[in-house]
Specification:
CATH class: Alpha Beta
Radius of gyration: 20 Å
CATH superfamily: LarA, N-terminal domain
CATH topology: Rossmann fold
Structural class: alpha/beta
Oligomer: single chain
CATH architecture: 3-Layer(aba) Sandwich
Largest sheet: 11 strands, mixed
Shape: globular
């Protein structure tokens, strides 16, 4: 595990006991900005080295322990309780080759059941039943197993939910069925708004996402996430970067897809998206592609989300832990 800025400061402060620090050294020590968000990158080994489901479960456990700084079972109990109805918001638009992996969903279900939830208290969901099926999920409304259905089966609210530029009907899965939501996007470039990760995944919770792509999604992506009925239920984001894509998204484009073999976990979705943006930009640079700004799809909605108070996009205030 890499040493975080917080641990670095703590360790070096301990060394100062019984020692003399110059005024300049003290100034340097305490000038570091306070960290306000944590993003964990939990890495999987090669897909060829054992059972994939085991790899994903182990990476999930390590990631949760690093994120919450406590043992795995206790970490999950910090996120949800056995009384919750938990919605797992997957991303299935790109089909079976580039959607939230079923192995990740099953690993999360395993851990939720281990802290006392019944399978019928868990709902796997996305916009359409056919998208879920196309990604390899089995539709289900039998509470003996985790439920699985789309907004088209659940319906949308009669009421309109508004926040500044956003005015939408919300999926009834959000308004009526769930008490808590775990967001499970995939990491990808987006041909209009720049990147699609945590914030953008909730376009799958509204009835009119087609109206909110102008100006690279700014401020619309931020404002959808600010809708209180949605925002109040989101507990955790786990971005599926087992495979990721740096160009040509949101559909699957094999030539720009790569096996990143990671999960990215955060409670601060803005911080997670800012780190995802950096990953995409670095991969584009490696492959001699222009920056997203130069490509005309700078994801400024991430900064707008930070200004709205959804989280931080200041890289100096984000602690990144690699496990």
């Amino acid at each position: 595990m890499s040493i975080s800025r917080r641990d670095f400061i703590k360790d070096h402060a301990a060394l100062a006991v019984g020692a003399t620090l110059t005024p300049l050294a003290l100034q340097d020590l305490f000038a570091a900005p306070a960290l306000t968000a944590r993003v964990v990158q939990a890495n999987l080994p090669s897909a060829k080295s054992g059972a994939e489901a085991d790899h994903v479960l182990r990476a999930l456990d390590r990631g949760m322990e690093a994120l919450l700084q406590m043992p795995g079972k206790e970490a999950w109990a910090e996120i949800v309780s056995p009384r919750d109805i938990v919605g797992l918001k997957v991303s299935c638009l790109a089909g079976k080759y580039f959607s939230t992996h079923s192995s990740l969903v099953q690993a999360i279900i395993t851990r939720l059941v281990s802290i006392g939830l019944k399978p019928g208290q868990i709902i796997i969901w996305d916009r359409l039943n056919m998208d879920l099926q196309g990604a390899g999920f089995t539709l289900n409304q039998n509470p003996q197993q985790a439920l699985c259905y789309g907004n088209d089966a659940a319906g949308y609210s009669q009421a309109l939910y508004e926040y500044q530029s956003a005015c939408s009907r919300l999926s009834r899965i959000v308004t009526d069925h769930c008490t808590a939501i775990i967001n499970l996007p995939v990491l990808k470039d987006h041909g209009i708004v720049g990147i699609s990760a945590g914030l953008k995944n909730f376009f799958g919770a509204i009835d009119n996402p087609n109206k909110y792509h102008d100006s690279c999604g700014d401020p619309y992506v931020a404002d959808v996430n600010m809708i209180p009925a949605l925002r109040s239920k989101v507990r955790l984001t786990i971005c599926d970067a087992i495979t990721a894509q740096y160009e040509g998204g949101p559909p699957f484009m094999r030539q720009w897809n790569w096996p990143m073999r990671s999960l990215l976990l955060a409670k601060d979705m803005v911080a997670l998206d800012r780190i995802c943006w950096t990953i995409i930009e670095n991969k584009r640079s490696e492959n001699n592609l222009p920056t997203l700004r130069d490509a005309g799809r700078y994801p400024s909605y991430i900064h707008t989300a930070a200004l709205r108070g959804l989280g931080t996009d200041d890289l100096q205030k984000i602690e990144v832990i690699d496990v």
